[in-house]
Amino acid sequence: MAKVGIIGAGSWGIALAVLLRKNGHEVTVWSALEKEIRMLREKREHKMLPGVRLSEDMVITPEEKEVAEGKDLLVLSVASSYTRETARRFRPYVGEGQKIVNVAKGIEESTLMTLSEVISQEIPQADVAVMSGPSHAEEVGREIPTTIVVGAKSRDTAEYIRNLFMNEVFRVYISPDVMGMELGGSLKNVVALAAGIADGLGYGDNTKAALITRGIMEIARLGIAMGGKFETFCGLTGIGDLIVTCASMHSRNRRAGILIGQGKTYEAAMNEVQMVVEGVYSAKAAMKLAQKYDIQIPIIQQVNEVLFGGKSADQAVKELMLRDKKLEVSDLPWPEGEADI
User: Per-residue DSSP letters for 225-263?
Assistant: First the structure.
């Protein structure tokens, strides 16, 4: 049995807390929100996960020291915009070499750092890993079979975390490509906004398939330029996570996109979804990274212009459709003697 501290009591943190407790581990959950702590202590259930019960022996606390000190693993599950602040709060209570696995997805806009880089900067003594993949909290909490990936600097750390989480309904792979995993997990949220916008405009499956396949090409182009591996973008934390986020109504990014496609501002859409829409925060960072590495990301660029530039959603689609003619895969050769079309 391991001692695990869950930092962040949103739906994803609670789903993982329930999973870890069922695996036999001792679990302590931290939240900065008094209302959330009271809800979990009194009802033993998160309002976003109806029917998913917290065991009576699971501790819910507002004290950083109580959730962090002496734990074998810390699971950091807060929205990307709060990652730095939260990591800074916990730094005094994290021991040398203590393992932290970050399960949020995003890029810090002001620094263009991935979340594991932010955590490592704020808690330099920690052994920081990431966990990502196609995994809605609503389904993990109901024990619907799910596959996910743990990425870490060392194989030993990745295997240790895998062994704590893995069971008959939660399969865990491991990877050394932390950068590729984090970029796939962050940028897919922006493409999912585009997929939702297309849904809100009343477009169909053809459009969705185009956005998914061309979207993963954009993510991979930028990710490889930043040091990620092509194979990662073909896997669970790339195309796998993109598919589930673009297709599912569990996806807050898709749901917000639908509202934007129907004419609402991103602020109004986020208020209606009532959850953090990570794609909104990652969209600007993605454009800055694309400019830094001189990479074309036309879908993500159009999402930015709809979100922040006042462009109508239908005009953005028209501009995507009427871009310069391209080869689908630019480095595939034609047979000898054939002219380029």
Answer: HTT--HHHHTSIIIIIHHHHHHH-TT-HHHHHHHHHHTT
